[in-house]
Known about the structure:
The chain has helices at 37-56, 96-110, 172-190, 231-246; strands at residues 2-3, 11-13, 24-31, 75-79, 82-88, 113-120, 127-128, 130-131, 149-152, 160-166, 207-208, 213-215, 218-224, 250-255.
Amino acid sequence: MVTNYVLPFPFEAPSRNPWEQSNEVRLSLETVAPLSAADMEVLEGCVLPFWFLASSGALFGGTGQKHTSIPEAPTFSGKDRSFQFTFQGWNLDERASQCLVCLLLAAHEDLPLKQVRLSIVGKAPPKPVTIDPRLDAPYPQAPSRPPFAWTIEDSESETRELHIRFVEQLSDAQRELIEGELDSVGIALAVGAYGVTPVPPRECGCLPSEEVSFSGDELDWLMEDCRFHPAALEGLIGVCASLHHHVAAIREVTIS
């Protein structure tokens, strides 16, 4: 694994992509100080946005959303200073781990971490991650052949808008599902899952709109104060691809 963030704690990870569907992946964390029950809830809440992104399709990359099942939430256990998250049957782009790195860096500010270990259960032990500040594509990119036309417009504005045109007008149930998906993705974007080095991930977020606007067969969703890596917008194309396959067919996507 390669990251462009200088890490304030030792981090070991597999040398191959751990996020293959047949793998059981374990994230082991050791904190500097013992954590209270409230602290453990905070720690769990720091990793949960990684699942939001994974289940939304943002981290699938080129793996093919049509045949990729929605990953289940990770299980969490531990006490005192040692904690584990277990991910079963996830199928993600290898670079998805960079989003996890960002979330752990954000968690470290509140709950200092002594060491982190990402491993594939039953496989070769992980190795120290490689730090490369020049890494220019650390995150998963948009799917190579999504089933709709899409455009991400160049903009220097800190306000970005997602516009989706569906094949047909949506039902109330479909609207509810889409709103829930975008709300979850918005949480992950807001807390810094797509950091821009050397800025701390917690300072790389946005203010997603709490409302999704629907009109006929179209949708608009606004994000303000956007200070995240451009790959976050490509991740939204992956989200749309997943919505296309699992919720409602999409004709066109524009991010302006």
